[in-house]
Amino acid sequence: MSAASFERGYNALKAQIDAPIASYFQSCVHCGICASACLFYEETKDPKYTPIHKLEPMRKVWEQEYTLWGRLMSAVGLRKKLTDDELAEWQELIYNSCTLCGRCSLVCPVGNDIVYMVRRIREGMVAAGHAPEGLIGASKRAVTIGSPMGVRLPALEAQIKRLEKSTDLKINMDKSDVDYLVLLSSMEIMNFPEYLEAIARIMRHAGKSWTLSSKAFEATNSGIQIGSFDIAKELVSRVVNAAEELRVKTVISPECGHAYTAIRWEGPNLMGRPFKFKVQHILEVLDDLREQGLLKTEGFAEGRMTFHDPCQLVRRGGVEEPPRRLMNMVVKDFVEMPDAGKWNWCCGGGGGVSSNEDAEELRTKAFKIKVDQIKPLKVDKLVTACANCRIIFEEGLEAYQMEDLPVIGLTEMLAEHLVETKGESA
Asked: Is pTM, for the whole model, over 0.90?
């Protein structure tokens, strides 16, 4: 990243104020309803966590640079200019207490997309040098190494070797003209390698061809989280180039919420052109295979279970029914959380918050909202479809003395119930 300065940050903020953002500031009726949709406000009752308040530095720039009233007030000295100290003070509000979950945008009575605005204000924060150290480090590793956690290709190759040795599965690398290019998150490689095994079993079962790419196996996009267009574009372009070089039909986003947003929804805009391939989340792929009769399961998982909807998947991505159809294939006692689906509460670790050590205390406090959702259900397991959510749940449940509740991925659970037939080959 280029050297940061307040001047660069101010100019970046000014440049980010487009027509939608100007109209959002103009149409805001200051009702405060967005506060009740934010888990950080709900668990602290501190008004500074009201979502629209987090955008105050950008509102100040908009008013003074783009409105007649703001210019006049500034000219006569009745409005103070934005300062670097203010941006430093707002770092906590823009990064520590916002997961980009989108619940505030959903409840806004005038339709303001507050998440869109937070995403844009982060561009100014990065340019001004007020992004959290944890996210800066993750972004640098993503650009230079290819993974925000520093996972290199040899680490993935070691996981593949171990998997192929312990099973009869075959993992393809850089195979062209296949149905699917499978992306992974670093967390899945290092913390949940069972995901890759599940993918291999499901693809063999469905008779689909697939591959990983040695040039672009990482799906996590730190550029989206920190708020840097340049980094986000660089990371998306690696996937696009690999997919087009291998001539795959579909790129599969892994069990990672924001990775799906990055490649599916922001990707074409970042690249400035449509993709030559389709992008789907793994749950969309599994639901398609189910509908085509290519995903056959047997038996049911024991115990009472609930499903946590990852925010970027259900609220920002619209993938609400597929996980429920898939859950019902293998779970008899499936119970919904209160506020399930698009109204579900965030785990508290999205939007880069999980990479930000400064946010840990607040994140743990906000996780109580999930505890209050889960406890009354008396479930034996919690299922989700995001590796980041799984990590946050494991840490949060331990903090609230609920570590005995297992958290599992939906893809792995389905793979455990596949009908194995003779003659299946990788």
From this structure: yes
Please list the residue range(s) of the chain that carry CATH number 1.10.1060: 6-131
CATH code of the region 6-131? 1.10.1060
Distances (CA, A) of 150 to 170, 183, 184, 327, 351: 25, 16, 14, 33, 19
Task: Report yes or no: 10 and 82 within 8 Å, Cβ to Cβ.
Answer: yes
How far is 72 from 76, CA to CA, in rounded Å? 6
Specify the length of the chain in residues.
426
Comparing CA positions, the residue from 263, 216, 261, 266 lying closest to residue 238 is 216
Consecutive 10-residue averages of pLDDT for the chain (426 residues)? 88 97 96 97 98 97 95 89 96 97 97 96 97 94 92 95 95 98 93 95 97 96 93 96 98 90 94 96 98 97 97 93 98 96 96 92 97 97 96 97 97 96 57
Centre a 10 Å sphere on the Cβ of residue 51 and count the other Cβ atoms it contains.
27
Strands 301-307 and 331-334: parallel
Buried-state track 398-417, b at ≥16 Cβ within 10 A, e below 16: ebbeeeebebbbbbbbbbeb
The per-residue DSSP string of 237-279 comes to HHHHHHHHHHT-SEEEE-S-HHHHIIIIIIHHHHHTS--SSEE
Whole-number CA gyration radius for the chain? 22
